[in-house]
Amino acid sequence: MGSIELRPFRIEQYYAEHEFTARYMLSSSDCESRTVGELLELEPGAQDALRELWCGYTESPGAPALRAELAAGYDGLGPDDVLVTSCAEEGIFLGCHALLRPGDHAVVETPCYESALELSRSTGAEVSEWRRRHDDGWAYDLDELARLVRAATRLIYVNTPHNPTGSHLTHHELAGVIEIARGCGAVLFCDEVYRDLEHEPELRLPAACEAYERAVSLGSMSKSLGLPGLRLGWLASRDRALLEPVLDLKHYTTICSSAPSELLSTIALRNRRTLLDRNLEIVRGNLELLDDFFERRDDLFAWVRPSAGPIGFPRLAGDVDVEQLCASLVASAGVLLLPGAVYDEPQHVRVGFGRHNMPEALARLDEYLG
After folding, report:
1. N or C: which end of the chain has fewer CB within 10 A?
2. Cα-trace Rg, the chain
3. Contact of 99 with 186, CB cutoff 8 Å
4. If we measure between CA atoms, which residue out of 305, 310, 308, 303 comes closest to residue 348?
5. Positive or negative, the Cα torsion across 336, 342, 343, 347?
6. Which of 219, 222, 227 lies closest to 83, judged by CA?
7. Using the 8-state DSSP alphabet, how is residue 207 labeled?
């Protein structure tokens, strides 16, 4: 473990202040959730299974039934190729600290969910940013990535589909990233928590762990499936030697996961198509409303249309104080947008469109802007 001090987590600080008091969440990164009762109704016998569940310790790698369902979501992986974590955040922490050491070098795609960058730095490794830019339409510059890697590059961290832009790698670009990683012997750590929520089916990529022998794929129950309250994530890799130090480190963090959460996650995964289809329907419908809104408001917003997931990252006109706008909006209209400063992109806001009440929240924003 490194000794580099972690900076405050700006995204989570902002949400801690506003998320549970704002009436309308117009920046949510997850999709519409469900009640425990609704999950149990997905299959016969589920209610009895939950009532009879033994609330003792669970297996550190995850319950066998859960790992089997997770592995079934990948081509060529088995249950032993999956390690359950107590959330995706723990997976990021464990992955960075198990795979990086002082003297190593890592490349992290940015803008990003802050823990990807900060936890990589906290290991004592030197970290370079593979920065993508709004002015380029959030394009992936593979030549720049190739220039950033070096002999000491141990890990390349990418996120596709992407938070906060809603963009994603193409098949050709993923192959290019893998070629670069293989060329320097780096582990490809791929945050795939929005996988299966591509707006068009043909955009769906193979998981990194399917396509590259030294890749680790990060998954979560929170985003595409809309079940963040279960607090479960996972890491998957064909190289079990990469997961062994992660498990060793997990013994010093959570040890094992919640037994009820593991059971409910297993039920959800057996019915993943039902959950995903409902959330895709919400996302697609809300995205059409956003397209219309940003077309009407093009004097204020520049909109690079997302192609996957429930979030986008519009830029505001340069004379707008974005943080002041967000503060005024939530105070006077009860609508929460996430200011882009938490991603080091101060002229942007993150919008979320994965929830049923997004149209009402968007109407309140429209009214506020006058």
Report:
1. C
2. 20
3. no
4. 303
5. positive
6. 219
7. P
Q: Which amino acid is at 143?
A: D
Beta bridge partners of 198: 308
Contacts 24+ apart (CB under 8 A), 54-58: 54/259, 55/259, 55/260, 56/259, 57/255, 57/256, 58/256, 58/257, 58/258, 58/259, 58/262
Residue 255 has which token pair? Answer: 């040890």
Task: Write out the two tokens for 283.
Answer: 């996302």
Q: State the DSSP code for 107.
A: E
Sheet (strand 338-339) strand order: 311-312, 349-352, 338-339
Residue 355 has pLDDT above 90, yes or no: yes
State the Cα–Cα distance between residues 246 and 108, nearest whole angstrom: 19
Say what the pTM is: 0.96
Is there a contact between 368 and 326 (Cβ–Cβ < 8 Å)? no
Quick check: helix, strand or coil at residue 81?
helix
CB atoms within 10 A of CB 28: 27
Token pair of 52, please? 């009879």
pLDDT of residue 3: 55
pLDDT tens column, 208-230: 999 999 999 999 999 999 999 99
* Tally of CA atoms within 13 A in the half-sphere of 336 that contains its CB: 19
